[in-house]
Hints:
By secondary structure, the protein is of the alpha/beta class. The chain has two domains: 6-81 and 106-265, Glucose Oxidase, domain 1; 270-332, no CATH class. It is built from twelve helices and eleven strands. It has helices at 6-12, 27-43, 60-66, 84-89, 136-148, 158-161, 186-196, 209-212, 270-293, 298-301, 308-322, 324-332, and strands at 109-110, 114-115, 122-133, 168-173, 199-206, 219-225, 233-238, 242-244, 247-249, 254-257, 262-265. The strands form two sheets. Strands 1, 2, 3, 4, 5, 6, 7, 10 and 11 form a nine-stranded mixed sheet that branches. A two-stranded antiparallel sheet has the order 8-9. Helix 8 (209-212) links the parallel strand 5 and strand 6. Helix 1 (6-12) runs antiparallel to helix 2 (27-43), helix 9 (270-293) crosses helix 11 and helix 11 (308-322) packs across helix 12. It starts with 5 loop residues before the first helix and ends in a 13-residue tail after the last helix.
Amino acid sequence: MLPGLWRACLKLGNTTMANTSICNSNSYFRARWFHLLVTVLLTGPIVSAPAWGQVFTMTREQLIKYTAKSPYERFPDGRPKVPDALLEKFKDMSSEEIGLSRGGFPNQYVDGLQVLHPDRKLIGRAVTLQLMPMRADIAEVDAAEWKAAGNQRPRDHQNAIDMLQRGDVFVVDVFGSVASGGVIGDNLAYYIMKTTGAGFVIDGAIRDLDGISPFHDLAGYFRAAVPPAIHNVFVAGINIPVRIGNATVMPGDVVFGDSEGVSFIPPHLVQGIVDEAQVTHIHDEWTKKKFDEGKYKSTEVYSRPRDPALLKEYEDYLKQKLGPKAYEEYQKRPQPGPPQTPVRR
């Protein structure tokens, strides 16, 4: 079977269909992404343990290579393991504070998905699954190798679900298909909730929405809810780069979802985002305090005080809230402009 990454490679050559490639919006990015995929495919095996047959995954070495900027520990499979303490800090954040576009990553935010529980945030580390439209000749070879490896149960999306652990987010690329049926229903959704404590992002459909809705400890994003179960697809890759909307998602990315949409954050950017969000919270707190006084026009206070005395008052407030050491680090960073909303996709 062709590697699970080949679909993205083939899309890069398709210039006749608008918005079908993860890279349409930027020719430089398109060239870089193509180079990355070809390098992965040609310089090393993209296989896991022999029992997986021909389902492709990035090796530990390849995951380390393409997430080399991550400063954190790793899971045995090579996925970056952003610390739980950092993930905890996202609970008080919003999509507006992620700011990946300002950091040179304009394609990491997805909206337009249905949100299972808008009042519950999705926070965790991505485990990725790629499903592709069924093609009999490929699927037959894959099924034969899977059976020859001693597996009695046919391989499907549940093999990826069984890999999930605490703090993981199940991220599924179903090429945006609703007609392919629901990837999960209430039983598998319940398993994901109990196993991960987080949730799922499915660029496709789910089913049994009435059964899933009462699971208030589960966060979820999906295209639609439909009665049929998943069908007419096969597993092409597990823990490989996948596409969700216009976002490219790597295994180990931090997934953050709120009532507006979902961001997929490269691990090496996490600490900076958390630090900047802390400053933003203090800034907003001080701004509202000044508005409460009823003495200032909005432009005198927001987004940044223009009067030197007010500006000093704000800086003193910020230093007090951050603490001297954190404030010193803050002063070394480029001073942020006003908060910006993420790029809509």
